[in-house]
Amino acid sequence: MKEAGQMQNLESAEAGRSVSTQTGSMTGEIPRLSKVNLFTLLSLWMELFPAVETQRPKSQEKEEGKHGLLGDNEEMAKVSADKKQVKRTGLVVVKNMKIVGLHCSSEDLHAGKIAMIKHGSRLKNCDLYFSRKPCSACLKMIVNAGVNRISYWPADPEISLLTGASSYEDAKLDAKAVERLKSNSRAHVCVLLQPLVCYMVQFVEETSYKCDFIQKISRTLPDTNIDFYSECKQERIKEYETIFLVSSEEMHKQILMTIGLENLCENPYFSNLRQNMKDLILLLATVASSVPNFKHYGFYCGSTEQINEIHNQSLPQEIARHCMIQARLLAYRTGDGKTGLCWFAHFSQKSCDGTGAMYFIGCGYNAFPVGSEYADFPHMDDKQKDREIRKFRYIVHAEQNALTFRCQEIKPEERSMIFVTKCPCDECVPLIKGAGIKQIYAGDVDVGKKKADISYMRFGELEGVSKFTNWSCSCLPTPRHSSARSEPHLRPKPQLVATPDP
């Protein structure tokens, strides 16, 4: 019962904390996502990162032309089958409880190998959160790098055990090799899943439904009887359960036994494990539904002057949505009642990552200063008449946390961007400009408003930074010499993205 006991001990330790620091949990009326579950959810979400579209090399096309579709393609068919056997995997790299890397598998490289290329010996003493148990090729390298802990989602591993009979034996051999590497490793290889705190799912659902993106769509729907949000959420739940949850309980138990988790196959551990997994999938689907792929709604630049200049530099809508949903996931770590989070990423010309030409720089969420107790500072908002007991002068904003705890420097020659769940305030706008951020993707709630002790007047006046807010592209003017804005799915796509940490 070693694995099950470790899970219970970790849950008890997390539940016992009562401080609201940058890294701890808090006790209060607002449910808060534990860091362990946040890292797990981000690893699952990274697995779903929109795939990079790659063109086949011309040499390969010529070879196919020589042999034809039914020519000497046995080797190619074998390679294709091997790729299908390897499941795409998401990975979160954590150091000192701060995210320092977000990765996903590429067409050629597994997530663990990408982490080795990106971080190398800097992985020493890091914690790694995988969306699938890594294969032996990845595990031996990351163990060799001196990682502290490796946690993984306890379902179908990276080398799939749900494939056909021809590759099942190879998958079992790899699982045995992984288990042997685990048993001889100084690194702690385990499963870390915690039950969600009371009312967490309900809180996430309420805040997701009230998300400005959803509300903007709701106000313009011709038929108000259509609850597109609920429909979208049900579709996401089915989709994510298919991907992340083995449908057959018996098959799930067989997989757990094969990958060395036989202790979790006994009840109540197995039923608790399944329930925790289902709850996390539900939460992920709920948050993902708050920024749906709905008709022509997306993140666009509303400035007529800037459209001609930047329409070819903006992200594809599926990438922008993916990043904004990650920002919303991070926001549920906040110790502040107003959920707000940001992160930024940079483009580089070449990348081995499944995120294409983007890589992670840093992220943050609203929180009180590191080391503060929950009751140290005021928690009242602008509805409180007594200004002295309002929280605004004490909260460290998401943008400020992201800048402080960034894991890489911001290079002025590269295109950097941040994703914020709401409009940056006047306190943060100068920081964003001074840091050299090139693009902001944000909600437009409170833009141009002044509230008691906090103002959002400067965001609209920010120059030299491209601002993308949640618009309908039908509301935007069509740029001269281009039909790209009226047909967003036809816009040329820059190479892809990556992700951040609190």
TrEMBL record:
Cellular component GO terms held in the UniProt record: cytoplasm; nucleus
Molecular function via GO: cytidine deaminase activity; dCMP deaminase activity; importin-alpha family protein binding; protein homodimerization activity; zinc ion binding
GO biological process, one term: DNA cytosine deamination
Signal peptide residue numbers: none
Domain CMP/dCMP-type deaminase, first and last residues per copy: 64-169, 318-456
Bias (Polar residues): 1-11
InterPro entries: APOBEC/CMP_deaminase_Zn-bd, CMP_dCMP_dom, Cytidine_deaminase-like, dCMP_deaminase-rel
Keyword Hydrolase: yes
Cofactors, names only: Zn(2+)
EC class name: hydrolase
Catalysed reactions, as listed in the record: 2'-deoxycytidine + H2O + H(+) = 2'-deoxyuridine + NH4(+); cytidine + H2O + H(+) = uridine + NH4(+)
Chain intervals for the UniProt region annotation (Disordered): 1-27, 478-502
E.C. designation(s): 3.5.4.5
Keywords assigned by UniProt, alphabetized: Hydrolase, Metal-binding, Repeat, Zinc
Top-level taxon of origin: Eukaryota
UniProt similarity note: Belongs to the cytidine and deoxycytidylate deaminase family.
Its biological purpose: Catalyzes the deamination of cytidine and deoxycytidine into uridine and deoxyuridine, respectively. May play an important role in testicular development and spermatogenesis.
PANTHER family the UniProt entry points to: CYTIDINE AND DCMP DEAMINASE DOMAIN-CONTAINING PROTEIN 1 (PTHR11086:SF14), DEOXYCYTIDYLATE DEAMINASE-RELATED (PTHR11086)
Protein name: Cytidine and dCMP deaminase domain-containing protein 1
Organism expressing this protein natively: Catagonus wagneri
Taxonomic lineage of the native organism: Eukaryota, Metazoa, Chordata, Craniata, Vertebrata
Gene: CDADC1
